Amino acid sequence: MKIINEASDKFKDKQDEVCGFALDILRQINALENEVFNRSQELIRQKLAAGVPKHQVGPGENELWDEYAQRLGELLKPVCTDKLMKRGFGGSFGSPVKYGYIDGECTVNFIMKSAKKAVIETHFVKGTPQMHKFVLKPEDGKWLFDEVYYGFESAPDKWYIDSLR
User: Which of 87, 83, 103, 114 is closest to 14 using CA atoms?
Assistant: First the structure.
């Protein structure tokens, strides 16, 4: 991972604080998603071995989804604004994990022009060249995720509203 600091001179020293916080949360999301995906795969194997058709919900699958949503909510609630939480979360998990690129080949742009907002843009290739934008705002002495977007390098000025996993 390469981090490019595009912050105003006044805020360049905030890179480690803001990026460290945000990337740590994304890694925690990745770890949870990976754990739940692996457990889901095991439940699917057990379901098929018991003769339950693949398209039917097997024992434990609904409970796993509930657990995933509950644990992800516990992780996100303290680090997201109410605005972002209202977008929803926990609607999917998979392999590779959504933010797995952060521990591989990617570029991170840290942008901060005022004390009221920091932006982290990630650029990575997952099939096609893609990007995520995380807008963070300080609140009560800590940083919170406020907005999340995704986009494609083929249209670098077009962003689509997203949520944290």
Answer: 114
